[in-house]
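Researcher: We plan to redesign the surface later, but first we want a full-length starting point. Tokens attached.
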């Protein structure tokens, strides 16, 4: 969970000029293949975060990382675990525990540190996290991450994308936007469905979703200079009354919200301090994932479990529009920290889905047709 503190602006922080490549038309949408159920996670395992290689699935749940083979879902090994010592993750966390594959390493992120393991689970090193920083990803000679500050008068919560050195010290801010949640005299206000600032490292570039600027993805090099941007064509998708009802219903069932309801006594009392504001239109892009040296940007076009994606290359060109199954969405706080319960890799999409049996998560795969 990002905790709020006040920081002064750094005078050297500047915005960069954009070299834009506008895509005027998008190739015909290609549909995904039929999804195949591979099996299920053990009953009672509720994943906090997952990531995949072409042959294995890494599941982080309650501090322990379990590695399953693909496609047969045989448990191969476990490592990490809950606790306060070296190589362990805090048993108390607010969805900012994640696992991600970082080249030949596994990076586990906790409330206040990152832990690097080898792929076979050997502890390599730990590093303390900067305050109010989440979604730390190796990039260039160091890392890139999201960092929260509060600035201005009246106070405004701002989320920034920053470059960090190998010791996780800030080098440079490369992008910022107003955060989707703001403090109010009565408590706080959340804009829904929420513009969460997603990004993806692909090769030696980072692709940044800039939905406040419209349908825009900025492309930055390892020095933090914006070298290109993509502007996929497409009309904004309006928010409907049904959308608003569904969003609030899902929000009320999230674990963090259940905890907040328990603390305040009821959903109605919680709403006295927590207001919700709906945008007229959905953000242009929902999230992005690396796919080789390009990215797949997920849009808000969705029907059932299938969502629309745009394949964007390193020059900002939209190469294809495809439809892929995505299963169950991660909760809001998990998505803030970079968690998604699906991964497109090696021409296939793997995804998790809950609900067929209470307390059980199923694992599926499908051919990523058109890639």
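Model: Full-length starting sequence:
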């Amino acid at each position: 969970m990002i905790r709020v503190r006040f920081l002064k602006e750094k005078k050297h922080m500047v915005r960069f000029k954009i070299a834009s490549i506008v895509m005027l038309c998008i190739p015909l949408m290609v549909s995904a293949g039929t999804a195949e159920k591979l099996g299920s996670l053990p009953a009672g395992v509720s994943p906090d975060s997952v990531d995949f290689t072409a042959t294995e699935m890494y599941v982080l749940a309650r501090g322990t990382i379990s590695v399953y083979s693909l496609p047969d879902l045989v448990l191969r090994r476990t490592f990490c675990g809950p606790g306060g010592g070296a190589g362990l993750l805090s048993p108390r966390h607010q969805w900012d525990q994640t696992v991600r594959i970082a080249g030949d390493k596994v990076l586990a992120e906790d409330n206040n540190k990152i832990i690097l393991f080898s792929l076979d689970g050997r502890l390599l090193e730990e590093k303390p996290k900067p305050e109010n920083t989440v979604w730390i990803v190796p990039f260039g000679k160091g890392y890139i991450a999201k960092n929260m500050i509060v600035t201005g008068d009246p106070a405004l919560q701002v989320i920034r994308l920053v470059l960090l050195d190998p010791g996780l010290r800030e080098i440079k801010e490369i992008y910022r936007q107003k955060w989707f949640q703001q403090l109010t005299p009565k408590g706080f206000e959340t804009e829904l469905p929420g513009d969460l600032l997603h990004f993806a490292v692909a090769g030696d570039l980072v692709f940044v979703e800039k939905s406040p600027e419209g349908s825009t993805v900025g492309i930055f090099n390892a020095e933090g200079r914006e070298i290109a941007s993509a502007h996929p064509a497409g009309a904004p998708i309006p928010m409907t009354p049904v959308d608003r009802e569904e969003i609030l219903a899902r929000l009320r069932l999230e674990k963090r919200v259940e905890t907040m309801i328990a603390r305040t006594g009821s959903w109605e009392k919680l709403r006295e301090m927590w207001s919700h504001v709906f945008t007229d239109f959905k953000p242009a892009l929902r999230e992005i994932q690396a796919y080789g040296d390009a990215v797949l940007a997920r849009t808000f076009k969705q029907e059932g479990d299938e969502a629309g994606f745009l394949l964007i290359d390193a020059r900002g060109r939209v190469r294809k529009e495809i439809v892929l199954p995505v299963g169950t969405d991660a909760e809001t706080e998990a998505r803030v920290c970079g968690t998604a319960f699906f991964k497109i890799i090696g021409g296939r999409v793997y995804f998790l889905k809950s609900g067929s049996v209470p307390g059980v998560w199923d694992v599926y795969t499908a051919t990523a047709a058109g890639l």
